[in-house]
Design a protein that fits this description.
The chain is globular, with a radius of gyration of 17 Å. The protein has 219 residues and is an alpha+beta fold.
């Protein structure tokens, strides 16, 4: 997965979010259409959110994001490619089911401040990347539905919380579930009355989570 250095068709224009669409299935064609529709600023915001599952190599001047779901790593590569940034994918360890996408994309920063995205379309894109990297929901479509977002970075998690609230997606308070176990671990849940709106507006580009959302939307 080595992307082109040439800029793609992604642009910087954002339209208002259409909460009426229920087409969720993430085929390659659908993914490409959604990436194009979001535009460059939204794609960059998504990747900044996803970077919360990543690290920076000061030595090589690159950022790397790893996960056991190879499909999501491919999504990140496609997003970087559309933005015209080089990336490459590799498996970490011969016996591990763990894949990494590494990139020299200059706009990425582990110190990115998402507070300026609150109330904007790009704020939803950032939350989508954050949810795909760090969010949780039941894998069993028959289990009681929940959406949780958790992170040790309380500042970025606060911006995610504020972004969702600005789009009238009601959330519980940010809290530490067990200070004795990990005093720096924070999380919050999306309230049940806003589950539908979360699925319609935030959505997901993570293949497994997308399938789970699709199953829920059919119920």
């Amino acid at each position: 997965m080595v992307s082109s250095d040439n800029p793609s068709g992604a642009d910087n224009q954002q339209g208002s979010r259409d909460s009426s669409s229920k087409e969720l299935s993430l085929t390659p064609q659908r993914l490409h259409a959604e990436l194009l529709a979001v535009g460059a600023m939204g794609l960059e915001a998504y990747l900044q959110g996803a970077l919360h599952d990543g690290t920076r190599s000061t030595l090589h001047g690159t950022h790397r994001i790893g996960q056991s779901d190879e499909g999501w790593i491919d999504v990140l590569g496609a997003t970087l490619n559309l933005l015209g940034h080089r990336s490459w994918k590799y498996r970490e360890g011969r016996s591990r089911r763990y894949w990494v996408v590494e990139t020299t994309a200059h706009f990425l920063s582990v110190d990115f401040d998402p507070s300026d995205l609150v109330g904007r379309d790009e704020g939803l894109d950032y939350v989508r990347g954050y949810f795909d990297a760090e969010g949780g929901m039941p894998r069993d479509s028959g289990a009681r539905l929940y959406f949780q977002l958790c992170q040790k970075d309380a500042v970025s998690l606060g911006a995610v919380h504020e972004s969702l609230q600005s789009w009238h997606i009601d959330c519980g308070r940010i809290h530490n579930p067990s200070a004795a176990v990990d005093p720096d671990y924070w999380r919050f849940y999306v309230r049940a009355r806003s589950h539908q709106r979360f699925m319609l507006l935030v959505r997901s580009w993570h293949p497994r989570k997308r399938q789970q959302l699709e199953a829920r939307m059919k119920i």
